[in-house]
Amino acid sequence: MKNQNLNLEVHHITRVEGHGNIYVNVHEGTIEKCEWAIPEAPRFFEAMVVGRQYSELHHITSRICGICSIGHTLASLKATEAAMGVQISEQDLKLRKLALHGENLQSHILHLGFLVLPDLLGVGSVIPLTASNPKEVKTVLRLHRLANEMSNLLCGRTTHPQRLVPGGFSKIPSIKELTSVRQKLKEAVPDVQAVAGLIKSLAGKLPDFKRETEFIALTSPDEYALYDGKLGSTDTGAVPVNEYLSYTNEYIVPNSTAKRAKHARESYMVGALARLNLNYDKLSPMAKQTAEMFDLKPICYNPFMNSIAQLVEIVHSVEDTVRLIDELEASGLKSQPEYNVPKIKVKAGRGVGAVEVPRGVLFHDYTYNANGYCTKANCIIPTNQNHANIELDLQALLPKILNKPEKEIELNLEMLVRAYDPCISCSTHAIKVHFV
Amino acid sequence: MRIISKENFNQFVNSLIEDNSLNVLGVKAKGDKFAFGPLENANDLRLDYDVTLLPPKKYFFPQRETLVTYNVGQGFSAKSPSDVKPMVLIGVHPYDIVALLHMDEIFSETKSDPFYFEKRKSSIIIGVNIQKMSKWCFAPYMGSATVEYGYDLMLTDLGNRYAINIGSEKGEELLDKYAHSVQDALARDIQLVGQKRREVMMMSQQKLDFPPELIPELLSKFYGESTFWEKHSEECLACGSCVLVCPTCYCFDVKDNPDLSLERGERVRTWDGCLLEDFAKIASGENFRPTRPTRYRHRYFKKGKYLYDRFGFVSCVGCGRCSSNCLPNIANPVSLFNDMYHESQNIGVQVTTVITPEIKIQTEGNIDYVPRLATIVRKQPMTANETLFEIKLDDGSVLGHKPGQFVEVSVFGIGEAPISIASPPTKKGAFEICVRKLGNVTTKLHTLNVGDKVGIRGPFGNGFDAEFLKGKDLLFVAGGLGLAPLRSLFNYVLDNRKDYGQVSLLYGCKEPKELLFGEELLALAQRDDVDYKPTVDRCPESEVWTNNVGVITTLIPQVKFDSEKVYAVICGPPIMYKFVIADLKKRNVSDDHIIMSLERRMKCGVGKCGHCQINQVYVCKDGPVFNYAKIKGIPEAL
Amino acid sequence: MKPKVAFFDFAGCEGDQLQIANLEEDVLALLDQVEVVSFREVMKEHSDNYDIAFVEGSCTRLQDEDRLRQIRKNAKIVVAIGSCAAIGGINSLKNYKELDDVKKTVYGDSARLFDTYAARPIDAVIPVDAYVYGCPMTKEEFLSVVKSLLLGKRPDIPTYPVCVECKKNENVCAFERGQFCVGPVTRAGCDSCCVNEGTICWGCRGLIDNPNENSEKEVLIKYGLTVDDAISKFNLYYGWQERRK
């Protein structure tokens, strides 16, 4: 509308992790400002780990995020192990992949069930749904509990896992425990299908929005890359993870305590959608079917479909977990001492660990001195890498919805941010949408 | 004695494991250490172990045990013993067997603990003679390196076979049912076993420098040596490790755990330890053993003196677990006792006699952990913080208490608190308690009203000997809330006035508005057969007070009594006793004419959990009423 | 009338709030007892009318203090959940470093744009009524504190060290395994969960009220740690508590 004036400030957007702000100012039909700003209190992890021993780094950096703790811990361990030239066993590799599946399951279910579903059902939170849709809520809770059981079994606990240590695991599950989880996952498939069915029935509420951008994620010729891989891009090719800086190019913006990133374009996107766009062929059979249910295939440029990509990944994680446990059962589990401390030969070095956490590719980059104390650290968080993309998406979406009522504009902008499943305190920032 | 090859022994164990009606537990490796755990295969057994992390007592007195469940609508019920399969413990060392025998006596003294004995009675102990001794173990000195009884079967490793001593019919039947090819022992086997047992006696790497029989007497000479105890406890972390791994420790705490409904819950007991900072702390914040040296000393005294005096054994079996688990290495009884012995020589303290204590143990029935449901029938606030409750047991029975006893009052979901009974047994139908709002239970109690339900356990404690006091002159001295327990005796005396001689009551509070039982006291002032004298520490301007102003001791010179005939009965805040007693003695009242009621942190009410213990005395069981002559020698009492 | 509760977060990782989501089906039982009127992570609605405020995260900036004071004004009861809110948590690790260096390390030349001061627990700014320690807090302890508050009793938080729980769980002591542990001076209540998982106690629940720090440091050194490393262990979570002494 020609003479439209609009001032929107979403201060500390709800149903996302961390604090972020959306600022919108439209004056006489012209968009003067459409900003995504992060005012979250910075926590300075990269400085805190300097001077700490290699055996402590994973414990400290796990505290960057409560939801992607397992991912942070694994990225941290990979960086330390790369720096010290430590190889983990084939068995430990499989167990770590299982740990990552557990995290993905837990996080995606939480996001879809608690954070996105309310928007699709037109309510403010999952709380009224406990009364209006008790069956669905219980299904979500059941799946969430199972995902946590799996994480607890492999890692000790979901948030700040204890069993993940440099060189391997302090404690491993028994085959009996693993096969029990496998059985429960198989029995949970109907629940997963129910959730997929529910979201399919509501998928029409997801805006049909598209903005071409670059997608970056780990890729691998062997599998749907989560734990290992090269750093791939839909615009350019793949590079070894060590060269991540050439892709991330972090920079600072004045109104945000979060850094941003760019590569081939002004911004890029990481996360489930990026992974799906780059690894589609490696999805498990049922996961591909789920993607087909929603017509989701590469390259999808609709950020709202990130939530659907997460749903597809839930199915994939369930299937791949079953496969991994089948393999471990067939080969048998090699026992290890009860309070295991893998031997590490301490030396100076620098290592980069990259891992796909629910929200995207995460990098930890450490430098150690000869005594094993950290001298420098760099952490690039998925959500940091998404901030520029989020802002550009907001700026592209806004004109298309300006004709809607103010409440609906606000909801759509928030839904866009939520679709990214941002983890803002990770990026040591928060979002607040300010009405200017 | 029998013999079984090791192969057949393994088969025996596997047969036990296969029997699903048995819970087979054995010593297995845990990291570089050992622990008792469920046995899945005989091959996991490590009978060559030195010591387990935790003693087998964990199976009979678990770390955590539900005693009672409750439902706000329906009351309390005992946690029915879940179908617990009989346990077969394989590999118990002699010192742990001796420890269980200690625990048997401790848990049955006065009243028996049903939870402990139910498991103990149905279990089977297969012991094994020590093959390797931990470097901290000094069992040979404590007479527990080998045992003659206390087991159902006892194994001795003879290389390719085990010798088995049959200790009970149960053991014999077990062998008959599950073992094959068990033969009678030959002479050389018997000799070998004897040899092995003698070898065990020489295995200890610890060396006690004096005969262990002298330990109790030695300790009693060192109670007041503060520097000694401070020096030894300086590094104490108050971590409780020494007591938590001890096979003869049995202190416990009891807490209520509601579920999320807030309507139902359970009462759970857990291991506690006297070394922990808040062990002897009460709701008012007072801690009766606040410093590391006092707590550190208490453990040694409990093991080496108090339990010896009560039961006739030093309750330490020399397993060495406390020493090996103490990070600053201050918990080794051998080092401490040796130090003590050598210092006694240096300071010329003679310790040569062994005093055999007079043991008076009786058992009458089981401890009742389950509160009875009761209803509040009257609620009368008396001051800002104190309220009188009249309570009636729902089953219609009479409490049947003696003056001076107390009850444990349960408030659903909150917990239990010990409160003195404030009414005499002559009051029929219901009883009264005067409750000060202080901690969780008492604060919640204050929010309840007539018709609300509580749980009552008891009465507990020894109470006043009202019979003995007949014919005597009585001088009651009450400070603050101390009037409540005294009232149970005082009103009883008034109800039987002619049976008693002269009766005086001195009652002191901080300020007039804190006086309890105001109306009753006014009536009392009118009586001419009682000399009633109240006082307040101070009187604020806003209040009216025409009586004495000053601390309670200022009243003592004002009251007339015959020092030979009078019996003083005292109850009040901890600080009061010393001063009142001093003033009474100034007037020639003899020690054995002074009777007092003490307060401590009480949980079980039956002298088991350890919290109320002052030196060797349990306030809940041997008290709370004490004769000063008997208690003046007990340092922690006043 | 169900009490109204609200959740707030400051500088933290939101792990403690995730623990509430991790209550799984117990969340439903909890919602039977309380009414959630504000929980930014999970719901859009917000109200300033609440009885109990649960606060996660440390206070790391002057501007956070106003928010905290407002919460204190609105609430009858304020509960600090998680170590960051209760004792300063891992955030206080940065307090040992010169603030300017810290900012430069992370933000380079733009460091001047970001304000921050020594990370502190929320009771450094407002009076707090109850604490749920732990990094993250455990579900059991959170529920225990909530139940206590609903029943009107003081939450029962241990004043003894982790060793008590470690021994009850029959762990092999970390020191016996060649590792270094601060359990002897750390507050129990976590059921020694980290040692149970095969590692050590890192001290995340903060120091007990009267720790024998000298003894613990001597134990660490006796078992082979250097003096600097022993002190470094104390810096991990005790930053604010130590400084307050």
Quick rundown:
The complex is a heterotrimer of chains A (436), B (638) and C (245). Chain A is of the alpha+beta class and 436 residues long. Chain A has helices spanning 45-48, 54-62, 69-84, 90-120, 126-132, 134-155, 175-202, 245-248, 272-279, 285-293, 306-331, 382-401, 406-419; strands at residues 6-10, 20-27, 30-37, 164-165, 168-169, 214-219, 230-233, 251-252, 259-260, 268-269, 349-357, 360-368, 374-380.
Plain-language structure description:
The complex is a heterotrimer of chains A (436), B (638) and C (245). Chain A has helices at residues 45-48, 54-62, 69-84, 90-120, 126-132, 134-155, 175-202, 245-248, 272-279, 285-293, 306-331, 382-401, 406-419; strands spanning 6-10, 20-27, 30-37, 164-165, 168-169, 214-219, 230-233, 251-252, 259-260, 268-269, 349-357, 360-368, 374-380. Chain A is an alpha+beta fold and 436 residues long. Chain A has a single domain, classed as Cytochrome-c3 Hydrogenase, chain B (Orthogonal Bundle), CATH 1.10.645. In chain A, the strands form 5 sheets. In chain A, strands 1-2-3 form a 3-stranded antiparallel β-sheet, covered by helices on one side. Chain A has a 3-stranded mixed β-sheet with strand order 7-6-10. In chain A, strands 11-12-13 form a 3-stranded antiparallel β-sheet. In chain A, β2 (20-27) and β3 (30-37) form a beta hairpin. In chain A, α9 packs across α11 (306-331). The two termini of chain A are 19 Å apart. Chain B contains 16 helices and 29 strands. Chain B has an 8-stranded mixed β-sheet with strand order 3-2-6-8-9-10-1-11, sandwiched between helices. Chain B has a 7-stranded mixed β-sheet with strand order 24-23-22-21-25-26-29, with helices on both faces. Chain B has a 6-stranded antiparallel β-sheet with strand order 18-17-20-15-16-19. The radius of gyration of chain B is 28 Å and the shape is globular. The longest helix of chain B is centred in the middle third of the chain and has 20 residues, at 292-311. Chain C has 245 residues and is an alpha/beta fold. Chain C has 2 domains: 4-151, Rossmann fold (3-Layer(aba) Sandwich), CATH 3.40.50.700; 163-244, no CATH class. Chain C contains 10 helices and 5 strands; from the N terminus they run βααββαβααβααααα. Chain C has helices at 15-21, 26-33, 62-74, 83-87, 99-107, 139-151, 163-168, 193-196, 213-222, 227-244, and strands at residues 4-9, 35-39, 52-56, 77-81, 130-132. In chain C, strands 2-1-3-4-5 form a 5-stranded parallel β-sheet, with helices on both faces. In chain C, β3, α3 and β4 (77-81) form a beta-alpha-beta unit. The radius of gyration of chain C is 19 Å and the shape is globular. In chain C, 55% of the residues are buried. Chains in contact: A-C, B-C.
